[in-house]
């Protein structure tokens, strides 16, 4: 996984990230976010595959690249599901400057087109796995996973 470098502006940093919701046969593809290399007290949590968009990179291409880096799969973007934003206080950051960070996360639905499941090495995730959607509530996971599943279920209901 490539680390994005926040752009400093008016006393805060900004991070643009892209994630993919991939559901196949009732299971969701997740990556284990693991920052123990930077913070020994960090508790790994399951997240959607994705991450920081590089300078000059198209957002969709960032999602495609990140999914391949973290899971081994090549994907095709199907649809834009949501754009979310938030703020990370300076004291909760794991890297970069000592300023708060405004985050913008773009979520896409995607379909696997190739590749084989594998774990990322040398990045911020340490495993990739498929989980039945019914098992997700029992996982230690980031909020983004639940929000993505809600978008997926809403889309399925409308279809």
From TrEMBL:
Gene Ontology MF, one: hydrolase activity
Segments traversing the membrane: none
Residue ranges occupied by any Nudix hydrolase domain in the UniProt entry: 13-155
Record keyword Iron present: no
CDD domains: NUDIX_Hydrolase
Pfam families according to UniProt: NUDIX
Hydrolase keyword on record: yes
Alphabetized UniProt keyword annotations: Hydrolase
Coiled coil stretches, renumbered: none
Cofactor names: Mg(2+)
Entry's family note: Belongs to the Nudix hydrolase family.
Protein name as catalogued: MutT/nudix family protein
Organism annotation: Paeniglutamicibacter gangotriensis Lz1y
């Amino acid at each position: 996984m490539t680390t994005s470098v926040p752009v400093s502006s008016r006393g805060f940093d900004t991070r643009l990230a892209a994630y993919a919701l991939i559901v196949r046969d009732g299971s969701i593809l997740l990556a284990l976010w693991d920052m123990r290399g930077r913070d020994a007290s960090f508790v790994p949590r399951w997240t959607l595959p994705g991450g920081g968009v590089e300078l000059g990179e198209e957002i969709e291409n960032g999602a495609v690249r990140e999914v391949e880096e973290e899971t081994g799969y090549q994907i095709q973007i199907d649809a834009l599901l949501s754009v979310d934003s938030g703020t990370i206080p300076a004291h909760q950051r794991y890297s970069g400057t000592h300023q708060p960070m405004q985050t913008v996360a773009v979520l896409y639905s995607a379909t696997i087109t190739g590749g084989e499941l594998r774990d990322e090495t040398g990045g911020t995730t340490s495993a990739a796995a498929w989980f039945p959607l019914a098992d997700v509530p029992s996982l230690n996971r980031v909020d983004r996973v639940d929000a993505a599943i809600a978008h997926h279920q809403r889309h399925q209901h409308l279809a």
